[in-house]
Specification:
single chain, about 150 residues, mainly alpha, Multidrug-efflux Transporter Regulator, Chain: A, Domain 2, 6 helices, about 60% helix
């Protein structure tokens, strides 16, 4: 490519919309390489690579704050890969915690669905009663759900 691109063209190449680029700029993740006298932002190859990096990292579950840290590590070429590995390990640990929480939620919802008679009115619905009595992560005090 090696040419400078307007924000619209850069957004199309990176498969995002222009508002995304404006947002990344406000967050300090991206800066245009230059501006025309008219104020139009111009982006180049590195900007497109950075935008794709951000989108790929988001796809892996990294927040924009985490991505900002990764980008800072990426810029310092002498930084050891160990720091990046630590960030990835922390994200993996969070993903594993979420999986455990989702498994608990799935079991709870399966039990609730099984207890639902689907014949009564909503004022006696075991699912609604359990949700009303629920505590975080699907652990309830309700009589309709077996604890365990």
């Amino acid at each position: 490519m090696s040419e400078t691109l307007t924000i619209g063209r850069a957004a199309r190449l990176a498969k995002v919309n222009t508002q995304t680029l404006h947002y990344y700029e406000r967050r300090g993740l991206l800066r245009p390489e230059s501006r025309l006298e008219s104020g139009y932002r111009l982006y180049g190859d590195e900007s497109i690579r950075k935008i794709r990096f951000i989108k790929n990292a988001q796809g892996l579950g990294f927040s924009l704050d985490e991505i900002a840290r990764l980008l800072r590590l990426r810029v310092g070429r002498t930084v050891q890969c160990l720091k990046v590995r630590r960030q990835a390990q922390m994200k993996l640990n969070l993903v594993r915690q979420k999986i455990l929480q989702l498994n608990v939620l799935e079991k709870t919802l399966r039990r609730l669905i099984k207890t639902c008679e689907s014949k009564g009115t909503t004022d006696s619905c075991p699912i609604l009663e359990a949700v009303a009595d629920a505590t975080p992560l699907g652990k309830t005090r309700n009589r309709y759900i077996k604890q365990g």
